[in-house]
Write a structure and sequence with these properties.
Layout: E1 3-12, E2 15-25, E3 30-34, H1 41-48, E4 56-61, E5 64-65, H2 71-77, E6 78-81, H3 93-98, H4 113-125, H5 141-154, E7 159-163, H6 171-183, E8 187-191, H7 195-198, E9 203-208, E10 211-216, H8 218-221, H9 224-231, E11 233-239, E12 246-252
Parallel strand pairs: 3-8, 3-9, 6-7, 7-8
Antiparallel strand pairs: 1-2, 1-4, 4-5, 9-10, 11-12
Helix pairs in contact: 4-5
The structure holds adenosine-5'-triphosphate (ATP).
Domain ABC transporter: 1-234
Organism: Paracoccus simplex
Protein name: ABC transporter ATP-binding protein
Amino acid sequence: MRLSTTALGWKAGPRRIVEDVTLEIASGETFGLIGPNGSGKSTLLRLIAGLLPRAEGEVRLDGTSLSRLSRRQIARRIALVEQQADTDESLSVRAAVELGRTPWLSALQPLGAADAQIVDQALAAVGMAQMTGAHWPTLSGGERQRVHIARALAQRPRLLLLDEPTNHLDIHHQLALLRLVDRLPVTVILALHDLNQAMGCDRLGVMADGRLIACGRPRDVLTPARLAQTFRVGATALTDPADHATLLRFRCLEE
Ligand SMILES: Nc1ncnc2c1ncn2[C@@H]1O[C@H](COP(=O)(O)OP(=O)(O)OP(=O)(O)O)[C@@H](O)[C@H]1O
């Protein structure tokens, strides 16, 4: 699904949180959103998902304005996993993931065999297939995060929005998730803090003070000048002899 935003903005009272974000993301692209704390990444994801009232500007999905779509139509197209997502405490893992099928069911319609298969696949994709009966309060932070991602996958969106999805995950599950996202045949936008992980995205957008200040291929965006100005770090580029991939080693520029 192709996404375009035009002059997207949002204010909290008098304070401008996101300003004038115009962006084109191609179908199937994995787009990383990076930027310092409080730069507006989560707010931009919520704006793209159509979740914020009084939004300025426009979001278009394959050319159709989000404002012309119902909540249900949007939920069939876009899934968002937020940073501090929560769920009903009494749910089992499987029931939590089944909620992802809601936009595809009519009122009171039970899950069918095809839905159950999609839920199974989503649970397997995040490595939670062995824990389907576990209850929400008993899950670790990383397990909860993986269930949220499974729920989003079960929604079968064409645009997947992930806010710091590797937070809470151990290194194996971080890498497995990034590989999964990379292989998904859908458009993905993910907010990331780990700039080495961000290097694996097709393109990056850099947020600072609510504005999109740079956009392009990772190596063109993560320049020494950008890292110094926006992230206040210096970096040395190292080459992994195993596959010649470039890794950045950071150092703080200020005391
Ligand atoms: N509903 C709100 N009301 C008031 N201020 C808000 C609201 N939502 C976000 N903000 C403020 O807007 C700024 C941007 O927040 P946002 O969560 O979008 O940043 P972020 O780039 O995702 O940050 P982080 O990297 O720390 O997760 C922050 O200063 C935050 O305090």
